[in-house]
Amino acid sequence: MSNTESSVSEQHEIRLEKLEELRDLGYEPYPHDFEVTHKSKYILDHPELIKQDDQDEDDVEKVSVAGRVMTRRIMGKSTFFNLQDSEGEIQVYIRRDDVGKEEYNKVFKKLTDIGDIVGIKGHVFKTGTGETTVYAKEFQLLSKTLRPIPVPKEVEEDGETKVYDAFSDKEQRYRQRYLDLIVNPEVRDVFQQRTEMVQAMRNFMNDKGYMEVETPILQPIYGGASAEPFVTHHNALDMKLYLRIANELYLKRLIVGGYDGVYEFSKDFRNEGLSRFHNPEFTQVELYVAYKDYDWMMNFVESMVETVAKELHGSTTVQVGDNEIDFERPWPRIPMFEAIENETGKDLYGKDLDELKAAAKDLNIELEDSYGKGKIIDEIFGEFVEPKLIQPTFITDYPIEMSPLAKKHREKEGLVERFECICNGKEIANAFSELNDPVDQRERFEEQARLRAEGDEEAMTIDEDFLQALEYGMPPTAGLGIGIDRLAMIMTDSDSIRDVLFFPQMKPEK
Fold it and tell me: Where in the chain is the domain with CATH 2.40.50.140?
């Protein structure tokens, strides 16, 4: 056992003893509720709450606050401590003569620890040093903690300020997000911004008249993307089911059913590796609008994301690491093969499989035997083009082999009407003029089935019910998927997808 583990174990035992002592005193360390009337930020933002020297205490507005004890400065019969609630921290002053001798000496001073959750009732005053402070007239312990929270300590050494005991290990912060949120409250700002981002997108789509819907997570046939699924089993029906990899095919069924515009913020699941940009459980929003095409959808996407940036940052520009990203419309639009040729000098349009393999070899791209034309082009694009696209850019007109659900290009042979939005070197959005020809769709599915038989585990399967739906007629439709986690990384200047997920998937601890 390490020294740290030993210390935590010892503290745990000490706090268990304090818990029993509280109960022996007839004190309930876990009461059912506590009325909170004010939060720390509100008090600090409203100086009119502060008691003036000439005011009678009965004339001052009373406050009731609750939160964690984060620091204590005990001075005999009185103590200053910092209380942390959901909006920040505020100083509290507590005296023995105000709350009572036993409450102060036994419960607060002896049996309350850093990290315990307490309730305070009193009024607001300003100390001699000018700090807004809650003057405690009543004290109540609301939750006795049994484990010590790590409290950073700043120490001056050799003219430098050094911080000890900071809860800064990234992996532990992800594993114990609850502790991360306590000790590093600035993390809350990231998730607050993420929530505001999603709400801004929802408002934007609602204002256009599109309807938010829900579709199945458990699916008998997975589809809508090229990915390997998670597999589960339904006992009562004795059938295999899959966690959805996308909700596309169900949303398009609703367009067949007569809705003009539907969207869903969906949890999707793909059985893939972990990285800075990949979590097997992720969130995306998909939108389908009848009688529109991918050109219309490009205008929609840049308008919505520009609006989100303004609402979150008051500007179209967002600082992401060393890059200042500008979401002001219009964004560049570059055909995929043109973008590849610009970076590699190779024109891959119209090339057959052998020619593409030769080009990949020249570019030192490693290929697997199962790779078809679309996969090879995607590998070259991902290596030479995608990382260089920092400002939001639409890459358009993909090869048909890469896009089994997109409509054939109205002018260019072998291509489809598809775009991806690349920003900060990664895809954040994908959209099509949706394929609504059921005969063509069946042929595409059959080609995917052939690739799957040859070893491509991410190739799509044939969904007969979806094909049947298309045979009842789907109007021309534009479809869109935006990765919420990746967009949140950009909007919050976060380096890893784990920084924008409360509880990211982690490898098991040894």
Answer: 3-143
Confidence of residue 410 (pLDDT cuts 50, 70, 90): very high
CATH of 192-216+245-332+391-500, one of 3.30.930.10, 3.40.640.10, 3.30.200.20, 2.60.200.20: 3.30.930.10
The enclosing H or E element of 123 equals strand 117-126
Give φ, ψ of 9 to 5 degrees: -60, -40
On the CB side of 443, CA atoms within 13 Å amount to 11
Nearest to 141 by CA among 69, 39, 37: 69
For 205, half-sphere exposure in the C-beta direction (CA atoms, 13 angstrom radius) is 24
Any known ligand binding at 386?
no
> Smallest Cα–Cα separation from 330: which of 425, 390, 394, 426?
394
d(CA 502, CA 175): 9
Q: What is the mean pLDDT of residues 34-40?
A: 98
List of residues 6+ apart from 253 with CB closer than 8 A = 466, 469
Average pLDDT (62-68) is 98
pLDDT digits 0-9 by tens, 191-234: 999 999 999 999 999 999 999 999 999 999 999 888 899 999 99
Percent with pLDDT over 90 in the chain: 85
Q: What is the pLDDT of residues 436-457, one digit of tens each?
A: 999 999 999 998 888 888 888 7
pTM over 0.70: yes
Does residue 196 have a known ligand-binding role?
no
What pLDDT is attached to residue 453?
85
Residue of 315, 278, 310, 328 whose CA lies nearest to 489: 278
Mean pLDDT of 25-32: 96
pLDDT computed for residue 457 by the predictor: 79
Contacts of 468 (CB under 8 A, 6+ apart): none
Q: Are 180 and 173 in contact (CB under 8 A)?
A: yes
Distance CA 222, CA 245 (A): 7
Top CATH class of 3-143 equals: mainly beta
Instruction: Give the integer Cα–Cα distance in Å for 373 and 192.
Output: 43
Token couple for 401? 């082999």
229: tokens are: 């699924």
Where do you find CATH 3.30.930.10 in the chain?
Answer: 192-216+245-332+391-500
- Average pLDDT of every residue of the chain: 94
Q: What is the 3-state secondary structure (H, E, C) of 297-328?
A: HHHHHHHHHHHHHHHHHCCCEEEECCEEEECC
The token pair at 139 is: 């004290």
Distances (CA, A) of 91 to 29, 129, 287, 382, 496: 23, 12, 48, 52, 34
| Residue recorded with tokens 């022996």 | 24
Number of H helices, E strands in the chain: 15, 20
Cis amide bond preceding 330, omega within 30:
yes
| Predicted pLDDT at 158 | 72
Q: Beta partners for 212?
A: 263
Cα–Cα distance measured from residue 288 to residue 395, given in angstroms and rounded to the nearest whole number: 20
